[in-house]
Amino acid sequence: MVVGDISTGTDVLVIGAGPAGYVAAIRAGQLDLDVTLVEKEAYGGTCLNHGCIPSKALITASDLAHEAGNAEEMGIHADPAIDLEGMVSWKDGVVDQLTGGVEKLCKANGVNLMEGVAHFDGENTVRVSHGGEGQGSESIDFEHAIVATGSRPIEIPNFSYDDDPVLNSRQALALDSVPDSLVVVGAGYIGMELATVFAKLGTDVTVVEMLDEALNGFDPDLARPVKKRAKDLGIDFHFEYGASRWSEHGNGIRVEATAEDGEDTLEIDAEKVLVAVGRAPVSDTLELEAAGIETDKRGFIPTDDRGRTNVEHVFAVGDVAGEPMLAHAGSKEGQVAAEVIAGEPSALDYQAMPAAVFTDPEIGTVGMTEMEAEEMGFETVSGKFPFQASGRALTTGHTDGFVKIVADEDAGFVLGAQIVGPEASELIAELGLAIELGATLEDVVSTIHTHPTLSEAVMEAAENALGHAIHTLNR
């Protein structure tokens, strides 16, 4: 039996239930709006199901296995056996718990959940196609819509994700056995995180990158310890080479990479190849032209500081709206969009937007770099504290990296911070709060930090900027 073509209405229609979409839906529900949330696959989106959460779960597991097997200097002698199928099963349990929680939270906040694929059928209407034979489709009329369809891995020529040896990040996180060898195409944050995971699980990893360095876009001082650690783990790098094709070879594959000048080529034998060259917006399935919604040449939907598109009652949040393509940025954008729709005085402010890379060591950044601050006209002062001078870092065995704080020289206001080292993703939050509150170096220094902790490095960096650090030499 085919369900008839029915039509329903809602105050706010949210398309996509990732970190941007479900947060927007919940916040709109809290503001007493009638909300319908359409999701085609799984609540939580890519982040919870196939990206942020599962990758961090496997990073934690691979770190544990590697450290247990390499802790002789601590007097620990072990040879861990890797059961990737069991590891993935544990990861899936974490994911299921979180995605189930998202669904419950949506329902508890009065959000109407709908499974299906949505596309626009006018400025105030979408059509939702339901999966499965005989499920049909229906129309939803809305007063406001929030597009939160996220992004997908970019596919490069001659490397189809339909081919068994070729993996995207989602497929790599679902493997049931550890490959003996792996070529990683792309040395951005996704490529470097997963290259590190598999190297720690015993895979022979080779990274091919078209640019001249790993983690391009990050300060070279931050990327340098990560690259050094990767080399210590046995990861080989080939910079300024682009993967051009692959072919079956022996019991595995052979990946061919071509130099930027087009003359030199490399041939790398491996069991699998992981392509991690970035992500593209999922906007091509929405029939945006039916609502008059504009995109840029790459398919991203431009928005203002309230998340509005060029169509005033339609908003776009998360990856589909472009940089910064971060889950927490998308969540904030979703919250702001819901509040604006409800008539609240809300707007986006990215000055204290943190970013983190979960490599070994981790990277955390917030605010401006020293160069950016100077380009903005600030007279700057900076302070730095190395983790090798941190008592707590020494007790963990992780001493690579540093904390750097950038401040306005005259007033002392914290303008930015960069951290590379243990727990950088956690430590950066204190400095994000400092920027948000307009705190000064003196404020950070006057805050007593627990001893012995990694967070003392933040205080010491601020003291160094003021010229009176205790546990490192002042510049």
Helices and strands, with pairings:
Elements: E1 6-15, H1 19-30, E2 35-39, H2 45-50, H3 52-69, H4 84-108, E3 112-115, E4 117-120, E5 125-129, E6 137-147, E7 151-153, E8 166-167, H5 169-172, E9 181-185, H6 189-200, E10 204-209, H7 220-232, E11 236-239, E12 241-249, E13 252-259, E14 265-270, E15 272-275, E16 279-281, E17 314-316, H8 327-341, E18 355-357, E19 362-367, H9 370-375, E20 380-386, H10 391-396, E21 402-408, E22 414-421, H11 424-437, H12 441-446, H13 456-466
Parallel strand pairs: 1-2, 1-6, 2-3, 6-17, 8-15, 9-10, 9-15, 10-11
Antiparallel strand pairs: 4-5, 5-6, 7-16, 12-13, 13-14, 18-19, 19-22, 20-21, 21-22
Helix pairs in contact: 1-8, 3-4, 3-6
Task: Please give the radius of gyration in angstroms.
Answer: 24 Å
Overall geometry: globular
> How much beta, percentage-wise?
25-35%
What is the structural class?
Answer: alpha/beta
Main attributes of the structure:
475 residues; alpha/beta; seven-stranded mixed sheet; five-stranded parallel sheet; 13 helices; 31% helix
In short:
The chain has helices at 19-30, 45-50, 52-69, 84-108, 169-172, 189-200, 220-232, 327-341, 370-375, 391-396, 424-437, 441-446, 456-466, and strands spanning 6-15, 35-39, 112-115, 117-120, 125-129, 137-147, 151-153, 166-167, 181-185, 204-209, 236-239, 241-249, 252-259, 265-270, 272-275, 279-281, 314-316, 355-357, 362-367, 380-386, 402-408, 414-421.
Explain this structure to me?
- By secondary structure, the protein is of the alpha/beta class.
- The chain contains 13 helices and 22 strands.
- The chain has helices at residues 19-30, 45-50, 52-69, 84-108, 169-172, 189-200, 220-232, 327-341, 370-375, 391-396, 424-437, 441-446, 456-466; strands at residues 6-15, 35-39, 112-115, 117-120, 125-129, 137-147, 151-153, 166-167, 181-185, 204-209, 236-239, 241-249, 252-259, 265-270, 272-275, 279-281, 314-316, 355-357, 362-367, 380-386, 402-408, 414-421.
- The strands form 5 sheets. Strands 1, 2, 3, 4, 5, 6 and 17 form a 7-stranded mixed β-sheet that branches. Strands 8-15-9-10-11 form a 5-stranded parallel β-sheet.
- Helix 7 (220-232) links the parallel strand 10 (204-209) and strand 11 (236-239).
- It is globular.
